Amino acid sequence: MTGTSPSDFAKRLDKTADDTEALLGRLLSDDILHDEIARPKRLMDAMRYSSLNGGKRLRPFLVVESAAVFGVPREAALLVGSALECIHCYSLIHDDLPAMDNSDLRRGRPTLHKKTDDATAILAGDGLLTLAFDIITRDEIHRDANVRLLLTRALARCAGIGGMVGGQILDLAGEGRFGGNEPIDVARIQQMKTGALLRYGCIAGAILGQASQKEYQALDDYGRALGEAFQIADDLLDVEGDAAALGKPAGADAALGKTTFVTQLGIEGAKQRVRDLLARADNAVSIFGDRATVLQAAARFVAERKN
């Protein structure tokens, strides 16, 4: 890894995961906030079940490390990262539902609707989605309200109809859920369903750091390349990985009839595409010099991950 050893990178990743876990624990406590009437126990337990005690917290890590390029206080970046992680965890709850991917296992445990029921899972996802926008607007993130506005708008667009949610419906259409034979644009689906939140993790640091247009574009380009590499690696793991390492069933894409980068490019073609994306990611953030070494290491981690 360029400039950052694997062990140093792992320590940084684990540290951010631990810090995010602790912060989410506080944000998801039973303490009632101003303007809240109650925090129902069943709902809070379900939200905690699906967002605590698991995951690499890659998305918050990207926020923290992209913000660090500009010297942004870590506490502010962790708040933004926690909002992003709430969006990610909500999306996993809903993706796992019988009407979507119908998954029984997530992070080595029963999915939330299997642990509880469909209605509780839907509402827990709704709760995490809404909490994300409570967090992202908090004064502690930045003294400039316009920075908080930009962060909020970008999060809505990356998570919503033109991002993750839109990508999810295109993915379902690609499975033939709605009839017809619409052409499948795997790259577009990836950019929206998976890539948009990963990209947000990168541009959020630029927004927090009030970056120049050139600096913002560098992190945007990096985030787009990393997001695509992540999805291709995920597609490869679905073919080559095992359920124990993944914490979820392997071969799920094939079972659902999904068109993926692997089905389109083949295994070797997909691996070459990942190598090309790594070079693109490295080049994008090279303008930051030594400040980019952790981000460059993160791209390699994404490409080489085993789960």
UniProtKB/TrEMBL annotation:
Check the record and name the InterPro entries matching this protein: Isoprenoid_synthase_dom_sf, Polyprenyl_synt, Polyprenyl_synt_CS, Prenyl_diphosphate_synthase
PROSITE patterns assigned to the protein according to its UniProt record, in alphabetical order: POLYPRENYL_SYNTHASE_1 (PS00723), POLYPRENYL_SYNTHASE_2 (PS00444)
- Keywords annotated in UniProt: Isoprene biosynthesis, Magnesium, Metal-binding, Transferase
According to its UniProt entry, this protein's organism is Bradyrhizobium diversitatis
User: What cofactor does its activity depend on?
Assistant: Mg(2+)
What Gene3D superfamilies does the entry give? Farnesyl Diphosphate Synthase
> Which top-rank group of organisms is this from?
Bacteria
Record's Pfam families?
polyprenyl_synt
| Stated name of the protein | Polyprenyl synthetase family protein
Keyword match Nucleotide-binding? no
| Stated family | Belongs to the FPP/GGPP synthase family.
- Tell me which NCBIfam families the record gives: FPPsyn
Recorded hits in PANTHER family, A to Z, give:
FARNESYL DIPHOSPHATE SYNTHASE
